[in-house]
Amino acid sequence: MKKRLIAPIALSTALIAATLPQGQPLAVQPQEIAGVQTKSVKQWNEKANVPLFVKEKQAVKRMAATSNDALNYLHEKKSTLNIKNPKASLKAKKVEKDDLGMTHVRFNQTKDGIPVEGSEVIVHYNKKNEITSVNGSYHPSAENAGLNTTPALSSSKAVDKAKSAVKAPDKLTYAPTSELVIYPFEGNDHLAYKVNVNFLGEAPGNWFVFVDAKTGEVVDQYNAIMHAEDIKTQTGTGIGVLGGHRLLHISQTKEPNQGTMFQLADYSHEGLDGIFTYDYSNNRIEMFKDKDAAFTSDFDRPAVDAHYNSEKVYDYYLNEHDRNSLDGEGMPIQSVVHYGENYNNAFWNGTYMVYGDGDGEFMIPLAAGLDVAAHEMTHGVTTNSANLQYRFQSGALNEAFSDIFSALIDDKNWELGEDIMAPAAKESGRESLRSLSNPSKYPVNAAYVPYGNGDGMYPSHMDEYYDLPRSLDNGGVHINSSIINHAAYLTAQDIGREKLGKIYYRALTTYLTSLSDFSDARQAIIQSAVDLYGEGSAEAAAAAGGFDSVGITE
């Protein structure tokens, strides 16, 4: 029998803000430039990335849909696009062909071979090899600046400074990674090491720290917690947190001094590296296992739900969007349960989902919610596609896509987290975490109120937007996301859940980039509807209407 290795588990996104009570791109207003229809967006600071969405009025026929041809096109249009020397500053990242026959060529902006953080340009071809649009994000200042790209600081010293800055524990989940980048920040371009430090513990972290490669000073940092044996796969059973009987795919193995054991390890899906569920109750990650194929104890129940729900979400993305796992290439789907003590949260840490058991008063074990699993796993899809930066509007989009797909997968209503609210929370009127149909039914944390319109409720419209600083909810990722949530809900009322899912999935995986904002999302979602259903279609009108209704009109 073939030896199978239990996959090891290795950016992170919390389900809710930690303070929950009780708890620029190449886009463009239409103007015609050299036959190109463009829309301009105000820069967020003097040297900000320039948002970009350039749409050809008439598709431009090309020799082939390749990275070389796309680069030649960008060179031809460099004055229109305000890119001084595309052939020197853009490096091909990926070429993808989708189910519509369209080809999408992604480029990263670089300087002297060093990537410019957050800057991507995507060239889109139709199936006739005609270029239809260009979108993304570009940073002109980095191209023009006389920045010395030779570091004075070593990578190892940058890692040490990053670990110190975030007060990392001695024991880390993974060895920190370090990458030299150009980091535009607050009007200046820095040569910096982008260091990722990941750890669990009482205050889990998936920190990105930007250390100046000349001076050693920390320029910026943010926590991206979004919030071998012979193995025989077989069927097992279990009981979930809410008493539901679950049919599970598990594995049987023989272990020294323990005999036959049954593990929550599923190898039954062709092309998938497996679905695994782990236990963290002893403050270390261990495969969840038992001597019996029936996982029925109270301790087992969160693991049963995590394992079962992971497969449900995997099936949705495979069947509805032809996506094989979170990265589209069969990466293992991994969950960790029994994390922390009275921990009212769940998060994606870049490679796996982590679920707390709740405190029994505000929440029960979070693994109980199919929508919670869908939310966290969608963060994994986002990490492996648009990779939306987890702060301000890009971070709010990150959260919104997770909320939206959670409501498409767990489709009994438009609420998130209703199955994990404890009795006391429900008695106090908190029946779910968030609502897509009526976001303003719930209050935000008191600390956020001064930054809004004074109502203190989750926003449903841009008139109610919370202008939060980075220090509060990473600039409102869990708060302002509800505006995008509501736009999606309104669109779905006209075209249904299935079409909404197809449109939003295409926008996430085809058009959005790491620094996309709400205006970029509108452009991407409308264009995705046009790609799928045609210019002037009811679906494209519904996509635009959803955004119009929440005050995102350009």
UniProtKB/TrEMBL annotation:
Please tell me where this protein is predominantly located: secreted
Localisation per UniProt entry: Secreted
Enzyme class, first EC level, given as a word: hydrolase
Catalytic residues in the record: E376, H478 (proton donor)
Cofactor names: Zn(2+)
Residue ranges annotated for the Peptidase M4 domain, each copy included: 235-382
Keywords of the record? Cell projection, Cilium, Flagellum, Hydrolase, Metal-binding, Metalloprotease, Protease, Secreted, Signal, Zinc, Zymogen
Which Gene Ontology terms of cellular component type are present?
extracellular region
Q: Domain named FTP: which ranges?
A: 89-138
Span of domain Peptidase M4 C-terminal: 386-552
Signal peptide segment: 1-17
- Return the EC number: 3.4.24.-
Molecular function GO labels: metal ion binding; metalloendopeptidase activity
Name any Gene Ontology BP term. proteolysis
Tell me where in this chain the PepSY domain is found: 153-222
So which domain of life are we looking at? Answer: Bacteria
Q: Which residues form a coiled coil?
A: none
The record's family statement is:
Belongs to the peptidase M4 family.
Entry function: Extracellular zinc metalloprotease.
Give the PANTHER family listed for this entry.
BACILLOLYSIN
From the Swiss-Prot or TrEMBL record, give the protein name.
Answer: Neutral metalloproteinase
